[in-house]
Amino acid sequence: MRTLVLDQSYLPVNVVSWQRAMSYLARDRADVLEEYDALVHAGVQMPAVVRLNRPVVRHRQRVKFSRANVLARDRSRCQYCGQRFPSAELTYDHVVPRSQGGRTTWENIVMTCIDCNRTKGNRTPAQAEMTLRTQPTRPAWVPRYNPRLQTREVPAEWRDYWTAELEP
Asked: Any long-range contacts for 125-130 (C-beta under 8 Å, 24+ apart)?
């Protein structure tokens, strides 16, 4: 069983084992908001949702360049045709091709479907007479918590606190 951990403003920051959640409670670092029906031992229920008592310190950091973060920035959409695709059907595209001096940077990479990438080929969007939906930039956000849970996997006890975008 897993426990959802919330910060002081009731935003999800982590998912931990129920044992770790119990250690937070034993050290008075969190309060229980929801419990599962299961018992840890006589009279003590397993925590489902806990809220931390102290602020979570978040350090500002630059967004790491990775395929997953480019997918998140482009919201799993082809930046030429605008259609949404599963991540396996999207590929990197250098807006200015590497053969023309383009680099692999936030400002020069977009996600595209295979058909649009083939159509564009080794040309710039202007040369291929294609239009980018959005200009690629380095995102200003760093996901605090990026769960990959399906809707059916989220326990009922979490529903009132779950704010992450769930995959269909």
From this structure: 125/80, 125/95, 130/80
Q: What is the pLDDT of residue 163?
A: 56
Question: Mean per-residue pLDDT for 129-155?
Answer: 71
- pLDDT band of residue 152 (cuts 50, 70, 90) is low
More confident residue, 72 or 150: 72
Whether the Cβ atoms of residue 33 and residue 51 lie closer than 8 Å to each other = yes
Q: SS3 for 26?
A: helix
Q: What is the pTM of this model?
A: 0.54
d(CA 3, CA 106): 35
Beta bridge partners of 45: 39
User: What span, in angstroms and rounded, lies between the C-alpha atoms of 53 and 27?
Assistant: 11
Is the separation of the CB atoms in 89 and 95 below 8 Å?
no
> Which two tokens mark 33?
């908001």
Instruction: List the chain domain ranges.
Output: 2-57, 62-139
Tell whether domain 62-139 is in CATH 3.40.190.10. Answer: no
